[in-house]
């Protein structure tokens, strides 16, 4: 059965081996199934015919039936154009072509009736259409009443007549062959409850809808199917893991209580208290925890992490904290170290630049259990890193680590799989969280510690540079410090470094009375650390840097963040950078410097930054502007390769699918009920087709 859909597209009448090869190479269409799922990306409304006197240039496009009354050539040999006058009983308009003139001259028939489609323009009190689509009037196209599909095509494809029209033709040939083979893959009761049309109708209508309504119904049905099966898979994975994976039972809280009573430096926010409860509930459950902790920059994730570490310690287990960069590792080491010291807890740092002798000592104490916490980069994954009893893994900024790296750390526990807490400072919109992290539990710190001032954000053009410098001087006089960040502009490190160095020099010239530090990715970690420490101690007042300072760095006295060429940064990067200031009681400022040439999207990013400090709001705009694949960095396990659903537009539908999937799995986890048989069958088919049902986690 499945084999029919797996038939090579070269077997479609009118395709053949040569065109098939082009389609395979250009848009990865190999078999029938690929082809029918090559959906139009928009539609031209051909449901209506206009009379010529109804048309004005406000219309995006119009469709008219008329007679060619006159044909003439104008212009010279260099730029010849063909003008045809099209008439109906209400008036006339001009059709103009600059291309394909000879061909049209041969084929256009004066006196014949045509269907014409295009964008109307007004010129000298009359209407014309430039390069219209034109077809001789036939029985078929005279009826109107349908929407034309528009398919993506490439230059190469167009040379092989595989433009949008060519693809529509292929779909027209293929659909009637395929439709009898299509099996409904949603249970009847879901179709009824969710008011969904059958799959075969949906497929037909997604390519050739008869109306807006039928198109909407088709889209809804296909999106539902896609999101529903994705959610079903993720929920099943999560449940499966929860049932199977026993976890360490952490019930004791001695150290934690001591810390809470004697040392905690501030009252936790309600959000912090809530997520700690959520996490603690996992740790007491006897199942392995797999939880994502998200919270905006400055929301106070560190103290939460430390409290969780204490629980592990209380129960006799070590913790590993893994961060994506050396600087972040250093930061965690310092922050967690401060708390650890209060309780006499042993903590060490391991990165690729740790000295051999020191490393040997660390590994030894880690293996004996003397060392209780280790913070590190992916150096922690190395085989030589052996724990006595690893019970808790905290991973900062998960999407920079692959799923496989996560798994390698797990395996360092000799008993059960350790608990895993993934922390991210980049808030993820709900829809994305539900898909990418759909197999994790999620805790969100959605509240900042009290008294935090909003960071005042301004957008300044390069012309105002002197004023900006003046402002920085004023702040430094009041005892504050400033970051000035340069973007990566060229792909080449050399050029970027030069750009940064030029910036450093001009800042040095502009601020002769102050000390200026510099920080970039090519420096050794000792040099970086030295620069950071000098800045932290206010031995330097301005830090010129690349985005290496993006995540996590905490310099409470820094109140100004200047971002050069801000239009070149992504939204979440800008937000992260801004989060480097505003970390203490002083009013802080973020100044976005931008050149004169800013794209529309670039402007929207800058305006969003000026408008809001809310990381979740920023994440939503980011999702809208960039799409989910780019946000997550990599295409994770194909989860984001959605064929038709759109995480930005389809949030409500996704929610519905999630609920529907949850309900089914709750009621009938193995799909044994008669009414769910279709689901079981479809999952099996998906399984054999792609095998990725089981590969995802
Ligand atoms: P992030 O979530 O960005 O890692 P941190 O954990 O670094 O945030 O916390 C940011 C700052 O806020 C730190 O200086 C920290 O000591 C402080 N902080 C955290 N929680 C609270 C709280 N409940 N009340 C007051 N200050 C807090
Ligand atoms: Mg932090």
How would you describe the overall organization of this protein?
- This protein starts with a helix and ends with a helix.
- The protein has 26 helices and 22 strands.
- It is globular.
- It has 697 residues and is an alpha/beta fold.
- A hairpin with a 6-residue loop joins β2 (62-74) and β3 (81-88).
- Helices cover 42% and strands 18% of the residues.
- It has a 7-stranded mixed β-sheet with strand order 6-7-4-3-2-5-8.
- The model is unreliable at 691-697 (pLDDT under 50).
- The longest helix has 33 residues, at 212-244.
- The structure holds adenosine-5'-diphosphate and magnesium ion (MG).
- Adenosine-5'-diphosphate (ADP) binds next to α12.
In short:
The protein is α/β, with parallel strands linked by helices.
Number of helices: 26
Distance between the termini: 29 Å
Q: Which ligands appear in the coordinates? A: adenosine-5'-diphosphate, magnesium ion
Strands of the biggest beta sheet: in what spatial order?
6-7-4-3-2-5-8
Q: What is the overall silhouette?
A: globular
The proportion of strand residues reads: 15-25%
Rg over CA atoms: 31 Å
Number of DSSP E strands: 22
């Amino acid at each position: 059965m499945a084999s029919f859909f797996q038939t090579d597209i070269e077997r479609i009448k009118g395709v053949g081996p040569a065109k098939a090869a082009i389609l395979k190479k250009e848009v990865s269409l190999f078999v029938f199934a690929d082809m029918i799922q090559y959906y139009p990306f928009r539609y031209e409304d051909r449901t209506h015919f206009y009379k010529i006197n109804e048309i004005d240039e406000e219309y995006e496009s119009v469709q008219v039936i008329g007679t060619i009354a006159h044909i003439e050539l104008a212009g010279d040999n260099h730029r010849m154009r063909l003008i045809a006058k099209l008439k109906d009983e209400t008036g006339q308009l001009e059709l103009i072509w600059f291309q394909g003139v000879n061909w049209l001259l041969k084929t256009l028939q004066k006196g014949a009736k045509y269907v014409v489609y295009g964008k109307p323009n007004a010129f000298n009190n009359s209407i014309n259409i430039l390069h219209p689509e034109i077809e001789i009037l036939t029985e078929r196209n005279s009826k109107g009443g349908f929407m034309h599909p528009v398919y993506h095509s490439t230059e190469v494809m167009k040379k092989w007549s595989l433009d949008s029209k060519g693809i529509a033709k292929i779909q027209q040939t293929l659909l009637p062959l395929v439709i009898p083979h299509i099996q409904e893959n949603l249970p009847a009761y879901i179709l009824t409850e969710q008011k969904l049309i059958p799959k075969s109708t949906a497929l037909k209508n997604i390519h050739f809808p008869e109306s807006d309504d039928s198109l909407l119904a088709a889209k809804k049905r296909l999106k539902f199917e896609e999101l529903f099966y994705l959610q079903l898979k993720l929920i099943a994975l999560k449940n499966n893991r929860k049932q199977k994976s026993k976890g360490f039972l952490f019930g004791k809280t001695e150290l934690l209580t001591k810390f809470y009573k004697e040392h905690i430096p501030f009252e936790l926010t309600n959000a912090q208290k809530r997520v700690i409860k959520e996490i603690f509930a996992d740790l007491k459950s006897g199942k392995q925890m797999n939880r994502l902790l998200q919270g905006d920059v400055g929301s106070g994730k560190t103290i939460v992490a430390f409290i969780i570490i204490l629980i592990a310690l209380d129960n006799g287990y070590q913790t590993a904290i893994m961060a994506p960069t050396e600087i972040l590792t250093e930061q965690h080491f310092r922050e967690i170290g401060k708390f650890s010291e209060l309780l006499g807890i042993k903590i060490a740092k391991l990165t690729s630049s740790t000295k051999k002798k020191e490393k040997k000592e660390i590994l030894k104490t880690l293996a004996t259990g003397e060392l209780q916490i280790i913070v590190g980069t992916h150096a922690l994954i190395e085989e030589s890193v052996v724990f006595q009893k690893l019970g808790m893994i905290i991973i900062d900024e998960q999407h920079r680590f692959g799923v496989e790296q996560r798994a390698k750390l797990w395996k360092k526990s000799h008993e059960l799989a350790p608990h895993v807490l993934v922390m991210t400072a980049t808030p993820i919109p709900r829809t994305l969280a539900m898909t990418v992290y759909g197999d994790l539990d999620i805790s969100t710190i959605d509240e900042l510690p009290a008294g935090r001032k909003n960071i005042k954000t301004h957008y300044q053009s390069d012309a105002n540079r002197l004023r900006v410098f003046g402002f920085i001087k004023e702040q430094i006089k009041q005892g504050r410090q400033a970051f000035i960040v340069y973007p990566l502009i060229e792909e080449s490190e050399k050029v970027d470094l030069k750009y940064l160095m030029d910036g450093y020099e001009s800042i040095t010239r502009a601020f002769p009375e102050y000390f200026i530090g510099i920080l970039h990715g090519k420096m050794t970690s000792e040099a970086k650390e030295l620069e950071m420490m000098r800045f932290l101690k206010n031995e330097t007042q301005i830090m010129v840097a690349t985005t290496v300072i993006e995540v996590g760095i905490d310099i409470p006295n820094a109140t100004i963040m200047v971002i050069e060429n801000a239009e070149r940064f992504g939204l979440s990067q800008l937000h992260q950078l801004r989060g480097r200031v505003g970390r203490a009681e002083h009013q802080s400022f973020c100044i976005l410097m931008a050149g004169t040439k800013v794209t529309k999207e670039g402007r929207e990013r800058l305006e969003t930054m000026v408008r809001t400090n809310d990381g979740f709001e920023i994440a939503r705009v980011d999702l809208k502007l960039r799409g989910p694949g780019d946000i997550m960095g990599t295409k994770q396990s194909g989860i984001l390769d959605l064929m038709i659903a759109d995480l930005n537009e389809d949030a409500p539908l996704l929610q519905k699918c999630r609920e529907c999937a949850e309900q089914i799995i709750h009621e009938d986890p193995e799909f044994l009920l008669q009414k769910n048989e279709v689901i079981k069958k479809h999952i099996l088919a998906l399984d054999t087709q792609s095998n990725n049902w089981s590969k995802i986690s």
